[in-house]
Amino acid sequence: QVQLVESGGGLVQPGGSLKLSCVGSGFTFNYYVMSWYRQAPGKEREFVADITSTGRTRGYADSVKGRFTISRDNAKNTVYLQMNSLKPEDTAVYYCHGNSDWGQGTQVTVSS
User: Fold this and answer.
1) Stretch 3-27: mean pLDDT, rounded?
2) What DSSP string runs through 34-71?
3) Which of these, 74, 82, 2, 76, lies nearest to 48 by C-alpha position?
């Protein structure tokens, strides 16, 4: 059974940082591109970042480029999203995606 479990969300002030983690199980993690998406209230789910199986290539949405960094540790079956210089518009539920499956999401709220 495939599982993706996110953690690390929370409440942070504008300009602050958070690091999200997603642990995968039930599939060969190091075979797959892994991605982060987010969904804000009343909006569609949108792409944030992805990383190839080896970690050599990473892609980012324009809205987060230069502020967010995606990485992975295949030995730990984990993908990360380091989020710096957070803005109120980054507030959303963040989802991990891989092997055609989704995690349950973790809430990130950026507010003073």
Assistant:
1) 97
2) EEEEEE-TTS--EEEEEE-TTSS-EEE-TTTTTTEEEE
3) 82
How many CB atoms sit inside 10 A of residue 36's CB?
26
Q: What are the structure tokens assigned to 65, written together?
A: 């480029």
Distances (CA, A) of 80 to 9, 20, 22, 44: 12, 5, 6, 22
Question: How would you classify the pairing of strands 78-83 and 18-25?
Answer: antiparallel
Between strands 10-12 and 18-25, the pairing is: unpaired
pLDDT of residue 101: 95
Facing residues of 92 across strands?
108
DSSP-derived pairing of the beta strands 34-39 and 10-12 = unpaired
Indicate the pLDDT class of residue 18, thresholds 50, 70 and 90: very high
